[in-house]
C-alpha cells in the first residue's frame, strides 16, 4: 500500500503525516493526529459535523482528501479558543444552552465562526441559510441561532473597542 | 416565500416566572457542567476512543431484504494480509426462542446483530471483521462471499397481512387472539384496551368521524453513528467503551449474546451524540467483544451513516383507523381506534403504547383501542421518543380537528370541552392525579401566535399530545471531596443535559452552589444498577435518587458535626449548607468545607447514597402545539411560519434545557410530518440511506419555536418534576397536518406531506 | 372485594377469556396469589412484563403494594420509553 506524505499546518502547528490515498482530511485529523473534536456524522458532506476551515474557507473535512490538504492551513475546533479564553461563540453556546448532546457543536462553532469572520452582522435568515449545512437533531436550532446572534454582537463590540483604542 | 422570520427575535421568548421561584438553584439557568468539553471539542464520544494495539472492525451486510443464507465463505477475506479474525452468528452464544424477558427477546436480538440462516432486511449484518486498519477491514468485509436463496420481500403492512405472502419468521404465531393461530403469521400480536361499551355508544352519537390515516417508517436521526470499542482480556473479563442510553443495558444484553456472566463485563459510558430511544438497544458491542476475544486485542467498530439508516432503529410506519363520536355540542362520547404498526423484521413494534396513549388526553367513558404488531422486511423497530404515541396522536388529533370544523368550533375550545383532568380515568386504566392538559390548552388560547391573522394558502393547526413518565431503578452516590466540594455519581447516560439537572437538585437539597457540585456518569462497576435513560425518567427518578442521596449525606454530616461538637446528634440540623447546633449560640455552624476537614477525625470519608426503585409518583405530561404554515400552490412546498410548543412540565429544573426538549421534539415532529420517510425500491432496498435524501429539518427550514412552560407540579416528586423529553414529539404530526389541511382545505391523512402529495391534492 | 382487570393475552391463556376478576386481600401479592389458586400460572404470567394501575398510580415491578382505598387493579403492559 502506498502512503502519501502530507505536510500541513493544523491550528498553527506544522504537522506531517502519512496517509492512504482514499483517506479523507477528516480521517487524517481524527485517526492520524488524534484531533477528535471534529466529528463524523455522515461522511457525505450532508451534516457539517466535520466542519473545518482550509486556507480560511469553510469545508466539510469528509469531502477533502488528506492528500489535498498538503501545504494547506487547517483550523479545527481545537484551535478555536481555549478553556482559559473561550471564543465568544463558545461562550454564547454555553450561556444560551445551544447544545444538548453536543456532537454537532464543534461543527456549528467552526461554521458560525467562518460566517462571523466574513460577515460580522448577519440577519437571522442569513445565519439560518449559512448553517443549513450543519445538522442538529436535538435543539430545533432555536438556541443555536440565538447564540450566534449574541456572539456576533459581542464580537462587533469587541472589535469596536479595539478600533477605538487604536484611534 | 422565505421560511425565516426575524420579527420574533426582538421579543423576549416565553419564559417561566422565575421571579416567583422559591428555590435557590432550581429554576435558574446555570452553564451546564459538561458544556466546556463540548464547545472545545474535548468531549469523548463513542467513536473517539483510541486504545493501544487496537484493531478496526467492519461489517458485511446483506444486499437483499429477504433471503435464506445458504453459505458464507470467509476464506478470501481471511487471506487478506492484516485481517485478524472474522465472526458470524455461530460465534455468538447459542440461544433459544424462549430466551427472553419482559424487555427483550435475546434470540431475536442475537439474530439481529448477526443474521442466523436468514437475512430479514436490506443491510442486515452477516459477518464482522477485525483488521489492523479500517481500510483493510472494509476491504475484507467486501471479500466475504454469501450464497443466498432470494425470497420475496414483504415490505408493507398490506402485503404482510395477505395469506399468500411469504412468512418472515416461522416461529411467530399471532399472540392475543381469542382463538390461537395454528399457522405461523406475519402478525405477531394483537392488543386491545377497552373502556365501557364504545361500539354501542357510538350508535348514539350525533356526529361520527370515521377516517383512516397512514404514516411511514422514520429514523431517530441522531447525528452520532453507533460506535464502540471492546477489550477482552485473558482473565475472561471484557471492557466496553460505547455511547448508549444505558451502560447497564449494554452490559446485560452483551453478556447474554456473548454467553458471559454479567459481572465479567464492564461498560464505560462515552458521551452520547443523540439517542432519542435509538440507543436503548445494542448492535455492535457483542461483535466487538467476540472479535477482541478471538484476536486478543482491543477492537473498535464504528458505523457509517448508511449502516445507521439501513440497519438501526427506525420507528414503525403504521396505519390508524379512527371512529370518534360526539354529540351536537361537541362532547366526545365514544372513541375507537385500530392501529397497525410495522415491527420491522422482528416482533415488537410500539403499537401497545400507541393504543394506551391514543385517547389519553380526553375524558371518554367509552373507548376501544386495538393494535396489531406486524412483521415486514425492514430493520427491527427501536424506541423513538414517546414510542408509538405520535402516529396514534396524528390520527386522533386530526379527527378532532375535522370535528371542530364540522361543528364550526374553535379546535382549542373543543379540546377544552373534552380534555382529561384530575379524576379522569384514562383508557389504559389509570385515574389521573393533578395534570396540566387544560392549563396548556388555555395557554394556547392566550398565546400570541393564536391571534395572528392568516393569509390565503396559510393555515393553522392545533394538536395535543400525551406521554407517560416512568420511574424505575436509579442509583446515586454523593461524595464529599477533601476540599468540601461534592461529586454526584449516577448510572444514567446524559442525553440532553441531565448532569446539569442532577447537579442542580443536589445543590438545592444540600444548600450549596452549583459550582461546588461535579456530576458524573459512572461506569457499571462504580455505581449500582440503574435502568437505562429513557421514558423521560431520569430527571424524575434518578433526580429522586440524587435528592435521597443528598438527604442521606446531610444526615451523615450532621452526625459527624455532632461527634466533633460532642453533642447529641438530635441537636444538629442542616440549614443553608451548614450544620448548626440548635439552642447553642456558642457553637459556630460548620460548612461542608469544614466538615470535609473533620471527616477523617470523626470516622473517615463521607458520602451519601440511594439505590431505589421508583415505583410510584410518575407524573404524566401533556402538551399542546400550534403550527402556522404556508403552502406554495405552485410547488406544493410547505413552509412553517410560526410554531408554539406548550407543555405542562411539572417543575422545570433548568428551564433552558426544558425549552430545548420542547423545541427539539417539535423539530423532529415537523420533519416526520413534512419530509422524512424510508423509501424502498421493489426489491426491498433502502433508497435514501443518507442525510441528503433522508432529509431532517435544517436551520433554514424552521422558524423560531416559541415555548410556553406550564408548571403544574407533580405531587409525586419533591420538586414537582414531570417527565419532559418525550411528550414534545407527540403533537407535531397532527399540528402540522391540521395546519396544511386548513391551508389548502383538503384533509391530509397520509404522512409525510411532501410537495408531490400536496400538489396532487390541490391539482 | 377488588376488581382485577387483565389483558386479553392473559385472559385467553388462563381465564377462558374472562377479563374482569374479583379477589380479596390487603396487599397486591396476596390478591394475585389467591387468583393463582383459581387460575394456576396467572401469577407468574403477570409478574413479567406487566405493570398495574392502582387507581391513580402505575406500579412497575409490583409486589406487596397496600390496597387500602383501591377498588380496581388493572394490569397493563409495562411502559417503556425512548
Structure, briefly:
With 167 residues, chain A is of the alpha+beta class.
Oligomerization state of this entry? heterotrimer
Number of domains of chain C: 1
C-alpha termini separation of chain B: 20 Å
The CATH class label of chain C is: Alpha Beta
Q: Give the spatial strand order of the biggest sheet of chain B.
A: 3-5-1-13-10-11-12
Number of strands of chain B: 28
Please work out how many helical segments of chain C DSSP would assign.
3
Radius of gyration of chain B: 27 Å
CATH architecture of chain C: Roll
Order of helices and strands of chain C: EHEHHEEE
Largest sheet of chain B: 7 strands, mixed
CATH 4th-level superfamily of chain C? Beta-grasp domain
- Largest inter-chain interface? A-B, 68 and 67 residues
Descriptive overview:
Chain A has 167 residues and is of the alpha+beta class. Chain A has helices spanning 25-32, 88-95, 105-118, 124-130, 142-166; strands at residues 3-10, 13-20, 51-54, 57-60, 73-75. In chain A, helix 2 packs antiparallel against helix 5. In chain A, a hairpin with a 2-residue loop joins strand 1 (3-10) and strand 2 (13-20). A five-stranded mixed β-sheet of chain A has the order 2-1-5-3-4, sandwiched between helices. Chain A is built from five helices and five strands. Chain B has 19 helices and 28 strands. Chain B starts with 34 loop residues before the first helix and ends with a helix. Chain C has a single domain, classed as Roll (Ubiquitin-like (UB roll)). Chain C is built from three helices and five strands. Chain C has helices spanning 8-14, 28-38, 42-47, and strands at residues 2-5, 20-23, 50-54, 57-59, 72-77. Chain C has a five-stranded mixed β-sheet, with helices on one face. In chain C, a hairpin with a 2-residue loop joins strand 3 and strand 4. Chains A and B meet through helix 1, helix 2, helix 3, helix 4 and helix 5 of A and helix 1 and helix 17 of B.
Amino acid at each position: 500500500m502506498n502512503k502519501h506524505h502530507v505536510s500541513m499546518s493544523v491550528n498553527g502547528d506544522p504537522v506531517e503525516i502519512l496517509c492512504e490515498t482514499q483517506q479523507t482530511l477528516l480521517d487524517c485529523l481524527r485517526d492520524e493526529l488524534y484531533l477528535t473534536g471534529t466529528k463524523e456524522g455522515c461522511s457525505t458532506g450532508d451534516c457539517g459535523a466535520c466542519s473545518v476551515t482550509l486556507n480560511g474557507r469553510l469545508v466539510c473535512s469528509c469531502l477533502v482528501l488528506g492528500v489535498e490538504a498538503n501545504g494547506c492551513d487547517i483550523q479545527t475546533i481545537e484551535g478555536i479558543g481555549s478553556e482559559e479564553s473561550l471564543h465568544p461563540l463558545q461562550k454564547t453556546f454555553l450561556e444560551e444552552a445551544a447544545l444538548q448532546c453536543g456532537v454537532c457543536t464543534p461543527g456549528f462553532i467552526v461554521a458560525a465562526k467562518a460566517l462571523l469572520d466574513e460577515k460580522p452582522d448577519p440577519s437571522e435568515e442569513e445565519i439560518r441559510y449559512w448553517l443549513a449545512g450543519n445538522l442538529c437533531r436535538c435543539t430545533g436550532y432555536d438556541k443555536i441561532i440565538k447564540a450566534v446572534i449574541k456572539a456576533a454582537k459581542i464580537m462587533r463590540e469587541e472589535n469596536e473597542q479595539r478600533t477605538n483604542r487604536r484611534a | 416565500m422565505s421560511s425565516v422570520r426575524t420579527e420574533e427575535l426582538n421579543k423576549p421568548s416565553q419564559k417561566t416566572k422565575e421571579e416567583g421561584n422559591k428555590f435557590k438553584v432550581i429554576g435558574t439557568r446555570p452553564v451546564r457542567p459538561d458544556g466546556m468539553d463540548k464547545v472545545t471539542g474535548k468531549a469523548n464520544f463513542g467513536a473517539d476512543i483510541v486504545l493501544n494495539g487496537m484493531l478496526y472492525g467492519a461489517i458485511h451486510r446483506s444486499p437483499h431484504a429477504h433471503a435464506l443464507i445458504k453459505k458464507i465463505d470467509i476464506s478470501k477475506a481471511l487471506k487478506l494480509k492484516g485481517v485478524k479474525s472474522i465472526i458470524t452468528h455461530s460465534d455468538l452464544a447459542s440461544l433459544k426462542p424462549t430466551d427472553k424477558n419482559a424487555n427483550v427477546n435475546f434470540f431475536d436480538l442475537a439474530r439481529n446483530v448477526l443474521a442466523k440462516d436468514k437475512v430479514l432486511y436490506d443491510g442486515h449484518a452477516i459477518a464482522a471483521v477485525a483488521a489492523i486498519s479500517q481500510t483493510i477491514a472494509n476491504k475484507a468485509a467486501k471479500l466475504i462471499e454469501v450464497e443466498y436463496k432470494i425470497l420475496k420481500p414483504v415490505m408493507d403492512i398490506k402485503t404482510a397481512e395477505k395469506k399468500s405472502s411469504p412468512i418472515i419468521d416461522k416461529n411467530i404465531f399471532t399472540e392475543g387472539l381469542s382463538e390461537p393461530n395454528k399457522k405461523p403469521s406475519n402478525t405477531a400480536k394483537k392488543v386491545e384496551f377497552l373502556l365501557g361499551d364504545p361500539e354501542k355508544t357510538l350508535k348514539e352519537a350525533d356526529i361520527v368521524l370515521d377516517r383512516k390515516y397512514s404514516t411511514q417508517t422514520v429514523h431517530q436521526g441522531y447525528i452520532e453513528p453507533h460506535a464502540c470499542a471492546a477489550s477482552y482480556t485473558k482473565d475472561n473479563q471484557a471492557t466496553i467503551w460505547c455511547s448508549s442510553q444505558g451502560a447497564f443495558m449494554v452490559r446485560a444484553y452483551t453478556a447474554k449474546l456473548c454467553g458471559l456472566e454479567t459481572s465479567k463485563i464492564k461498560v464505560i459510558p462515552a458521551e452520547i451524540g443523540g439517542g432519542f430511544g435509538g440507543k436503548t438497544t445494542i448492535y455492535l458491542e457483542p461483535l466487538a467483544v467476540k472479535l477482541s476475544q478471538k484476536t486478543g486485542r482491543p477492537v473498535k467498530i464504528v458505523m457509517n451513516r448508511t449502516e445507521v439508516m439501513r440497519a438501526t432503529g427506525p420507528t414503525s410506519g403504521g396505519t390508524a383507523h379512527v371512529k370518534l363520536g360526539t354529540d351536537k355540542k361537541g362532547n366526545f362520547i365514544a372513541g375507537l381506534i385500530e392501529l397497525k404498526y410495522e415491527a420491522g423484521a422482528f416482533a415488537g413494534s410500539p403499537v401497545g403504547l400507541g393504543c394506551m396513549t391514543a385517547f389519553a388526553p380526553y375524558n371518554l367513558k367509552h373507548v376501544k383501542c386495538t393494535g396489531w404488531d406486524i412483521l415486514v422486511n425492514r430493520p427491527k423497530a427501536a424506541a423513538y421518543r414517546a414510542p408509538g404515541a405520535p402516529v396514534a396522536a396524528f390520527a386522533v388529533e386530526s379527527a378532532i380537528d375535522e370535528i371542530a370544523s364540522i361543528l364550526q368550533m374553535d379546535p382549542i375550545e373543543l379540546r377544552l370541552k373534552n380534555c382529561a383532568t384530575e379524576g379522569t380515568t384514562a383508557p389504559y386504566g389509570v385515574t389521573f392525579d393533578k395534570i396540566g392538559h387544560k392549563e396548556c390548552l388555555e395557554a394556547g388560547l392566550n398565546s400570541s401566535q393564536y391571534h395572528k391573522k392568516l393569509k390565503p394558502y396559510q393555515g393553522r393547526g392545533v394538536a395535543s399530545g400525551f406521554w407517560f413518565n416512568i420511574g424505575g431503578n436509579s442509583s446515586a452516590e454523593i461524595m464529599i471531596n477533601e476540599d468540601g466540594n461534592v461529586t454526584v455519581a449516577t448510572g444514567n447516560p446524559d442525553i440532553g443535559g441531565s448532569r446539569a439537572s442532577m447537579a442542580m437538585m443536589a445543590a438545592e437539597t444540600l444548600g450549596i452552589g452549583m459550582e461546588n457540585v461535579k456530576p458524573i456518569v459512572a461506569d457499571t462497576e462504580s455505581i449500582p444498577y440503574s435502568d437505562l435513560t429513557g421514558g423521560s425518567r431520569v430527571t424524575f427518578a434518578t433526580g429522586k435518587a440524587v435528592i435521597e442521596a443528598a438527604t442521606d449525606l446531610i444526615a451523615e454530616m450532621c452526625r459527624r458535626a455532632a461527634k466533633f461538637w460532642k453533642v447529641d446528634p438530635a441537636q444538629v440540623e442542616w440549614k443553608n449548607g451548614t450544620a448548626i447546633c440548635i439552642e447553642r449560640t456558642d457553637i459556630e455552624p460548620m460548612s461542608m468545607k469544614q466538615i470535609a476537614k473533620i471527616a477523617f477525625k470523626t470516622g473517615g470519608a463521607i458520602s451519601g447514597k440511594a439505590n431505589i426503585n421508583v415505583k410510584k409518583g410518575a407524573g404524566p405530561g401533556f402538551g399542546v402545539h400550534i403550527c402556522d404554515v404556508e403552502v406554495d400552490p405552485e410547488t406544493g412546498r410547505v413552509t412553517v411560519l410560526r410554531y408554539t410548543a406548550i407543555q405542562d412540565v411539572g417543575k422545570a429544573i433548568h428551564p433552558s434545557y426544558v425549552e430545548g426538549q420542547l423545541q427539539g421534539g417539535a423539530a423532529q415532529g415537523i420533519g416526520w410530518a413534512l419530509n422524512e420517510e424510508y423509501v424502498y425500491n421493489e426489491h426491498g432496498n433502502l433508497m435514501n440511506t443518507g442525510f441528503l435524501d433522508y432529509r431532517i429539518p435544517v436551520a433554514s427550514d424552521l422558524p423560531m419555536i416559541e415555548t410556553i412552560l406550564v408548571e403544574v407540579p407533580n405531587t409525586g416528586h419533591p420538586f414537582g418534576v414531570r417527565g419532559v423529553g418525550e411528550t414534545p414529539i407527540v403533537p407535531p404530526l397532527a399540528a402540522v397536518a391540521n395546519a396544511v389541511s386548513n391551508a389548502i382545505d383538503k384533509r391530509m391523512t397520509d404522512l409525510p406531506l411532501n410537495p408531490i402529495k400536496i400538489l396532487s391534492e390541490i391539482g | 372485594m377488588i376488581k382485577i382487570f387483565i389483558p386479553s393475552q392473559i385472559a385467553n391463556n388462563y381465564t377462558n377469556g374472562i377479563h374482569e376478576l374479583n379477589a380479596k386481600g390487603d396487599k397486591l401479592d396476596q390478591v394475585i396469589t389467591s387468583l393463582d389458586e383459581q387460575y394456576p400460572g396467572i401469577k407468574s404470567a403477570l409478574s413479567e412484563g406487566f405493570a398495574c394501575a392502582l387507581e391513580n398510580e402505575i406500579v412497575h415491578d409490583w409486589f406487596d403494594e397496600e390496597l387500602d382505598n383501591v377498588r380496581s387493579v388493572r394490569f397493563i403492559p409495562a411502559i417503556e420509553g425512548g
